[in-house]
Amino acid sequence: MSDERSTKRPGFFRPLIGLAAAGLAGASSWLGPAPADEPKATGPATARFSMLPSNHMVLRAMLNGKGPYRLIFDLGAPITLLSNKAAETSGTVDAKTPKSFLFSMRGEAEVAKLQVGSLTAEKLPVVVFDHPALGVLSEVLGEPIDGIIGFTFFARYRTTIDYQKDEMTFTPVDFAIRDLMKDLPDRIAGPKVARRRVLAPAGLWGLRLGEVDGGGKGVRVASVVADSPAAAAGLAAGDVVTAVDDRWTTSVHDVYAAAASVEPGRPAPVAVDRDGKTLVLTVRPADGA
């Protein structure tokens, strides 16, 4: 499966106001007509999506049997968000529920039933407020964007996206979803326990690191212990270590962090710069016990 179209996905908090209005002329046609009703699937479910000029995927969803509502599918969103209008008209919140001054936030709520294509999700936790970036995007498009489908939804499924068919396939997975908003106060106010983390290789390598290379390539080897794993691999003093176990190493911390994940006896590739040439050597750390 391949598609030459851009598939960048702006994150939840990334501003969306950098859209060129000229490039969105007639943007309402991008949303397209609402997809025809599909029978409820007994296995993996599918749903059609539309691509906006901003490279956002938009799903048309029914909320509590009302809609459809246009929701951006965003893998970078830690929550599922609904605008105040969508939450009220779908019956997710009562119109008399008080709003806060900031973004007219109403806090947490629950959608009893969300339907996209042939998929039905129940008891979906959401947060209700008017995200300013969605307001700007709605204004530019000339059609409302009613919210964002985020982690509390997609964590329930293994999602396959076919960009040629503009179709998503959702396969349920057994995953316990934590209520991120509910946990947040406890995590902020909870006891602060100082932890000391020591970075050290799991095995013995047999080399001593020197200074970081002036050109920013990596870390220079100060010396190599005779008859050590590093010596057996061919490492030599003066080599500049640029990668360990396929991890870039531009600092001493990087080298130790990469080496710490290599178990004794497991061969690990080490890329070095030697006299302007790149060499990839294989080091098999020894057991340090």
TrEMBL record:
Signal peptide: none annotated. SMART domains: PDZ (SM00228). Residues 203-276 form the PDZ domain. InterPro entries: PDZ, PDZ_sf, Peptidase_aspartic_dom_sf, Retropepsin-like_bacterial. Pfam families: Asp_protease_2 (PF13650), PDZ_2 (PF13180). This is PDZ domain-containing protein. It comes from Paludisphaera mucosa. The lineage of its organism: Bacteria, Pseudomonadati, Planctomycetota, Planctomycetia, Isosphaerales.
